[in-house]
Amino acid sequence: VKRGISSFIREQPDKFHRRARRGIPAEYRWTVWKACVSHDERFVRNVYWKLTGLGSENEQWGRAIKIDVPRTFPRDQAARNGSQMSEVSLYRILVAYANLNPDVGYCQGMNFVAGLLLLVSGEEEAFWVFVCLMEYDGLAGFYRENFPLLGRYTHAFDELLARELPDLRDHFTEEGVQPTLYIHQWYLSLFINCLPLQTVFVLWDVIVSDGLPIILSISIALLKVLRPALMQMEFEDIVRFFKTMKTGRTK
């Protein structure tokens, strides 16, 4: 980090990715994430506060954001610092982005992504990393009208599942468990609303450093670990299992 993480990424990309996949130390995480998304090159001073000052011109977005913000980390009070200010900051970030890109506006799931960034950074930097992920790394495609990118990723995931875990896919098909039952939640929240927070941070180290397509490999790797348990379950138990993964109460 002292030598400059951006230079390290450019000069030794393979070594960097190997290290990132082992997990980035918490004290360096934000510095590395910013470098991975080229935050410093894309940051524009004073723009964020101007965007927040515009308010929410679309009443539907404003109402949805106000409803979703308090729900973002309801079981992670310590992580949220228990402060009202964190919710105010999250609200401002989501409104600012909706004003920046009204074609996307706001969609449920974006609150988890922006909220996680706020857990490791200040408000303005969190906004710009959010913008980098949405606008430059392609994440906005998950939230556009009719969810075009989400549909393509779901199809790609299903093909990968058939190739890598055919027995599990057949079992899911027999039980009526379609990929949309779980994969949409995984991808719209980038796993934040599905797994324990400390696990999510490690996965995000890989996602931010490798890029959005890596979520397909992460999904398959996760199911490979869960496969023995899932193969023994029927529909209701599978649904319950996926819903309780975040708390770890999956027995």
TrEMBL record:
Keyword annotations from UniProtKB, A to Z: Membrane, Transmembrane, Transmembrane helix
PROSITE patterns, alphabetized: TBC_RABGAP
Listed GO MF terms: GTPase activator activity; small GTPase binding
Top-level division of the source organism's lineage: Eukaryota
SMART domains (UniProt xref): TBC
Ranges annotated as spanning the membrane: 201-223
Pfam families for this protein: RabGAP-TBC
InterPro entries per the UniProt record, alphabetical: Rab-GAP-TBC_dom, Rab-GAP_TBC_sf, Rab_GAP_TBC_domain
Domain Rab-GAP TBC residue range list: 23-211
Family matches, as PANTHER family: GTPASE ACTIVATING PROTEIN AND CENTROSOME-ASSOCIATED, ISOFORM B, RAB GTPASE-ACTIVATING PROTEIN 1-LIKE
Record protein name field: TBC domain containing protein, putative
Annotated source species: Perkinsus marinus (strain ATCC 50983 / TXsc)
